[in-house]
Amino acid sequence: MAKILVVDDAAFMRMKATRLLTENGYEVVEASTGAEAVARFKSERPDAVLLDITMPDMDGITALKEIRAIDPNARVAMVTAMGQQSVVVAALKAGASDFVVKPFAADRVLNAVEKLVA
Q1: Close Cβ partners of 20 (under 8 Å, ≥ 6 residues apart)
Q2: pLDDT at residue 88 in the model
Q3: Which tens digits make up the pLDDT trace of 89-113?
Q4: DSSP label of 53
Q5: Closest Cα to residue 77, out of 6, 16, 18?
Q6: Cβ-proximal residues to 61 (8 Å cutoff; 6+ apart), any chain
Q7: Is the pLDDT of residue 85 over 80?
Q8: How is the chain split into domains, by residue range?
Q9: Which of 7, 65, 95, 102 could be stapled to 37 by a disulfide with Cβ–Cβ 3.0 to 4.6 Å?
């Protein structure tokens, strides 16, 4: 069973993603900030990360760079609100493998995670 780190400052979004992933057989760990995401990545060593871009304290791009510094092969999909295409491009350049637009469709999240852990 693959372990997924779900990172979002909105508790509702974390809960929605966690429920979806656990119902589909994934083990899930959560983080609510970029700094917490980096710490949880170090301690939990997840197989993949769903990482929100816009968060207080440390944005998703910075967290992505720190996670990739820990593990250059880290598999990360960014989660972004509509209209943040330029940020998505920056995330892909920083090493993200994919992105999911919020509000997300269940099949899109599952597809992204399946690609990450394949």
Answers
A1: 106, 109, 110
A2: 81
A3: 888 899 999 989 888 889 999 999 9
A4: S
A5: 6
A6: 53, 87, 90, 91, 94
A7: no
A8: 3-117
A9: 7
pLDDT mean across residues, the chain: 93
Token digits for 80? 């972004």
Q: Which two tokens stand for residue 55?
A: 């968060």
For residue 79, how many C-alpha atoms fall within 13 Å in the half-sphere facing its CB?
25
Residue with tokens 């809960």: 15
Whether pLDDT at 24 is above 90: yes
Given a cut of 70, whether residue 83 has pLDDT beyond it is no
Residue 82 has pLDDT above 70, yes or no: no
**Is the predicted pLDDT of residue 68 greater than 70, yes or no?**
yes
The 3-class secondary structure across 18-52, one letter per residue, is HHHHHHCCCEEEEECCHHHHHHHHHHHCCCEEEEE
Looking at residues 60-78, what average pLDDT do you find? 96
Alpha-carbon distances, residue 91 vs 1, 31, 46, 106 (angstroms): 27, 19, 19, 22
SS3 82: coil
Q: Domain 3-117 falls in which CATH fold?
A: Rossmann fold (3.40.50)
Could you say which DSSP state residue 58 is in?
S
